[in-house]
Write a structure and sequence with these properties.
The complex is a heterotrimer.
Chain A (H helix, E strand, L loop, with lengths): L3 E5 L9 H5 L5 E7 L5 E5 L10 H5 L5 E5 L2
Antiparallel strand pairs in A: 1-4, 2-3
Chain B lengths: L5 E4 H11 L4 E4 L7 H9 L6 E4 L3 H13 L4 E5 L1 H16 L4 E7 L15 H5 L10 E3 L4 H18 L2 E7 H5 L1 E4 L25 E2 L6 H21 L3 E4 L6 E4 L2 H16 L4 E6 L1 E3 L3 H10 L3 E6 L5 H9 L4 E6 L8 H15 L1
Parallel strand pairs in B: 2-3, 2-4, 4-5, 5-7, 6-7, 11-12, 11-14, 14-15
Antiparallel strand pairs in B: 1-8, 6-13, 10-12
Helix pairs in contact in B: 1-2, 1-6, 3-4, 9-12, 10-11
Chain C lengths: L1 E4 L18 H14 L6 E5 L14 E4 L5 H11 L4 E7 H7 L1 H10 L4 E6 L37 H6 L4 E8 L3 H19 L4 E7 L3 H4 L3 H15 L3 E5 H6 L5
Parallel strand pairs in C: 2-3, 2-4, 4-5, 5-7, 6-7
Antiparallel strand pairs in C: 6-8
Classes of the chains: A alpha+beta, B alpha/beta, C alpha/beta.
Chain lengths: 71, 354, 253
Amino acid sequence: MRAIKLELDQDRCKGCELCTEACPREVLAMGSQIHALGYRAAVAIAPERCTGCRACALVCPEVVFTIYKTA
Amino acid sequence: MEPMMTMMKGNEALGEAAIRAGCRFFFGYPITPQSELPAYMARRMPEVGGTFLQAESELAAVNMLLGAAATGVRAMTSSSSPGYSLKQEGISYMIGSQLPCVVVNIMRGGPGLGNIQPSQSDYFQIVKGGGHGDYRMIALAPAAVQELVDLTILAFDLADFYRNPVALVGDGLLGQTMEPVSFPPVKTTDDDKDWALTGAHNRPKRVITSLELNPENLEAHNRVLQAKFAAMEEREARWEEYRCEDAELVVVAYGTSARIARAAVDAARNMGLRVGLYRPITLWPFPGEGLTRLAEQGVRRFLDVEMSSGQMVEDVKLAVLGRARVDFYGRLGGMVPTPREILGQIQELMGGEA
Amino acid sequence: MKRIAGMPESMSAVVTHYCPGCSHGVLHRIIAELIDELDLRGRTVGVASVGCSVLAYNYFETDFVQAPHGRAPAVATGVKRARPNLFVFTYQGDGDMAAIGTAEIIHAAARGERITAIMYNNSIYGMTGGQMSPTTLMGAVTATTPYGRSEENGRPYRMAELLAQMPGTAYVARTHVADVANIVKTKQAVRKAFEAQIRGLGFSMVEVLGNCPTNWGMTPAESNRYVLTEMLSYFPVGEFKDVTKEALAGVHA
């Protein structure tokens, strides 16, 4: 079975929301918690829906996302 | 083996001296009266595996110099007054970034486009820091072609030692003068400096910048620079005293003016006048120490002679500090004083005192 | 598991000073990924310019030198001429490259310096507070065109097309980073530009259209839509010069 692991370094997030717009499967949303930089960070609300398409990682200017995939 | 003596023009001798000092990169832009230097480098650099590059402007040339210097190699640019004005940007950045290099200014008449005749009216610009920020740089002012060769080689050593640009200051007369010179053998230099940008291969990255947004850090950086400038002032002042031992009047002049003043001093001595010559070799640090001593020893008058309206004379006055009278004689706009003119000034001053 | 996205080795794991949603970070990551993938980290010298990307040297794990405003191509020329085995790139904005540094970029391109210039074109001076740049669109309101850019300010000009005319250029393209597909295409273009330098084919340049949410007064998403609609209609994406294919075919060999 193909597995995806999606990691968010929320302390890097500046809350620009580009990832939530880019994600085609509504995996991501903006959280309510304020993080290190003083912004609301993105959170993975439905990581099981992630296909590892990397759209979030590609649009993220802050390298918040690290994605692993089994071959 | 005895070094061979060759007849060479100042501008070309300067180029050869730079190559002997291990300089392999020259970036220039055409301007009279230093044109023989880039032309010499264009011909000579390929012979020694070096690079001559004609830039699109003095701004580009000085910034190419910055880039080459950042990699740790010995590099040089040259220009004349209007072009040196443009190079001030890069000089300020290189001092802020602690990069060594040699910048030549073969001065011409100004202000503005002025003319191409010999002048010394860039003293303020070179010595007082024409660029922005709190900075200093050693400025060497040779008065003969052999001295030009020796000081060119020294300039590269001082630049590397202090990690600071060094200025070589002359004028069209020195650049065009042909004299016998000898050169030392070619020096091998160590370009693998521990700050040089060579690619972060098996080591942490290195950054060369003059930017520091935090004022506390920028002040600390400035203190480091100031400590280097203080060390230069302490160690690098150079000058020549000629027939000053029993002098009542001492002429103060550098470069071409000093050469001419020397003939006037000899003529005055032949007339029985007790006159000497004090010749700054470094314009910065200004060699005031010897002047102070001469004033204390009883020299009653100093006559500062420049091909300007009186720029170095301010530093002479600071060194003498009221212990003796300081007079000034200058020619402007590319006019060169004759020995007779200077002798006339000497006679007038000494007669006036009698 | 295989890592398919994350922090490149050549990127510093620090938080940038860029505003939320600013695409500089995307372009930095693309460059760092390529430095990793092409195994260039140990022989790269980056040249930072003046503008928002002045601190780029803090964000790459490569050697870096910071150039005076507009002079990055001249500084890069000096670095490359002194040590030709280094991989040298400049990172400049539209103000730095297309205004104050016009002479330096044109002549570096004309000489065919073996360097790569990356231009981040967001049509505004960001660092100084949102003034008009040479690439500001007609009608755009900026700090120095409060009534909109008008004819008296002249019209925006296209740097990539201009540099493509220079005899020394090997590869010149314009891309944008306002959507996923074009972020991928930007990486392909920058890869080609880097490879052109590695293969010694000449000067290479990629103009990358990007946003400036803060100075445009838009949300990050809105600012990317401005790139897709307004900027793209004036600054077409594409490859304006590419000798890499010809070189492969032996035309320039």
